[in-house]
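User: Can you recover a sequence for this backbone? Please restate the input before giving your answer.

Assistant: Of course. Working from this structure:
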């Protein structure tokens, strides 16, 4: 699997996941970069002590000249902001060396973008199973007050030391677990998009994500307790997701409705207890919603669908759809602008919608069986997240139920990509889904508007 992943990766030429893998950092560095190249480790005080010092001494032993750049040496929190990218970029530039990021999501993203801006490649030594970005291209950076994915190449080499990751703070592993279990409903979203020719399934990318997935998420308690073998499987699953994105040149293999929920909260700078909520924790709550939405669709027999009735309920023009946005987004201009831009690409005319729904009607007996096989029941997803130590209620990440409902209602228009939620809407069932989940007796019943 790793050989297939590397053979089809646009940017990454070497990857090792395993206990003690960081010990091999010098050997990989030597193999990937010319012999006269110096190294600069980009780390923070914690990652320096758990892996950076080891990597530095291995590099020195191998005859590599090493310097280091410790981000926030006082140990204070930092985030993936563009100001930090510039800080790291200037440190790398001044050193005249090739960067080795030692850390997880934030340090990797900062180094990835900073190196790319200098026209340089870099490698990463991952220290936590906290997200799937190690081997992905692009970096999630807050710029001009908005979190965005800035373009940049994936690392030339990637090491994830699963022994180090197994002893990382528990919530980091829980976050990565949630980012990985998300690939279950994300896969179902992709099947739906594939069925109507909106985005065809890329067979290799699908296999890289979906084949190791069930085994990788099979033991959430083991992940939570820091069992190295379980954390290793988690790391491998996350790394494979990054490779799938590289193979396809798209985040589709790793991202569905649940990631749109997370991006929505990124737009709103969601924080809880004064700290930003981790990507995986947002995605985990999104995964619960997405699973519910897909189960809601699967309770319908679309082979008996009244296509004309559904087409009749759909806004007949793009302007008619746009007219609904101010109410859906409570008049917030940034949300409305984004929805208008994305939906200009995703809006289906009635003629097109008739084709889409007729296709679903025709293929439903076969497609619904594949979707059922793909999905994990809501109760099981929820229990697994709980055992992994991830939040299972929106309130646990500082989101009230009313806010959660409004997010879920607003999500379908925020990305031009086709998801299960689009089908709910195009069947004329969005209000029904919202009522079932957030109305009286619903799993996230909104008791009082707050
Ligand atoms: Zn993710």
């Amino acid at each position: 699997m790793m050989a297939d992943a590397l053979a089809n990766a646009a940017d990454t030429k070497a990857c090792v996941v395993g206990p003690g893998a960081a010990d091999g950092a010098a050997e990989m560095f030597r193999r990937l970069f010319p012999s006269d190249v110096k190294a600069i480790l980009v780390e923070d005080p914690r990652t320096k002590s758990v892996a950076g010092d080891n990597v530095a001494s291995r590099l020195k032993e191998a005859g590599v000249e090493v310097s280091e750049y410790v981000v926030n040496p006082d140990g204070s929190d930092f985030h993936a902001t563009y100001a930090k990218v510039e800080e790291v970029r200037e440190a790398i530039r001044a050193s005249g060396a090739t960067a080795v990021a030692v850390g997880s999501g934030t340090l990797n993203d900062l180094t990835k973008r900073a190196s790319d801006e200098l026209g340089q490649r870099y490698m990463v030594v991952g220290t936590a199973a906290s997200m799937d970005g190690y081997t992905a291209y692009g970096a999630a950076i807050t710029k001009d007050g908005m979190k965005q994915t800035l373009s940049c190449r994936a690392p030339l080499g990637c090491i994830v030391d699963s022994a180090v990751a197994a002893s990382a703070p528990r919530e980091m592993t829980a976050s990565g677990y949630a980012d990985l279990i998300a690939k279950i409903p994300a896969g179902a979203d992709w099947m739906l998009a594939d069925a109507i020719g909106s985005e065809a399934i890329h067979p290799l990318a699908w296999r890289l994500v979906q084949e190791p997935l069930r085994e990788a998420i099979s033991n959430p308690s083991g992940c939570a307790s820091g069992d190295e073998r379980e954390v290793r499987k988690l790391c491998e699953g996350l790394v494979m997701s990054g490779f799938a994105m590289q193979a396809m040149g798209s985040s589709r293999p790793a991202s569905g409705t649940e990631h749109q929920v997370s991006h929505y909260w990124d737009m709103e700078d969601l924080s809880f207890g004064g700290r930003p909520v981790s990507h995986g924790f947002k995605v985990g709550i999104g995964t619960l919603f997405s699973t519910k939405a897909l189960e809601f669709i699967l309770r319908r027999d679309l082979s008996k669908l009244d296509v004309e009735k559904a087409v009749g309920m759909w806004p007949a023009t793009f302007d008619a759809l746009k007219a609904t946005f101010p109410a859906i987004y409570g008049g917030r201009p940034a949300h409305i602008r984004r929805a208008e831009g994305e939906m200009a690409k995703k809006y289906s005319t009635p003629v097109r919608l008739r084709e889409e729904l007729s296709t679903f009607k025709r293929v439903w007996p076969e497609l619904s069986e594949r979707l059922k096989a793909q999905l994990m029941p809501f109760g099981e997803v929820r229990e697994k997240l709980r055992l992994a130590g991830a939040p299972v209620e929106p309130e646990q990440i500082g989101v009230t139920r009313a806010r959660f409902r409004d997010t879920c209602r607003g999500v379908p228009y925020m990305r031009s990509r086709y998801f299960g939620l689009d089908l709910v809407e195009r069947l004329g069932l969005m209000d029904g889904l919202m009522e079932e989940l957030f109305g009286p007796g619903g799993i996230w019943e909104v008791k009082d508007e707050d």
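That completes the design. The chain has two domains: 2-168, 176-199+250-438.
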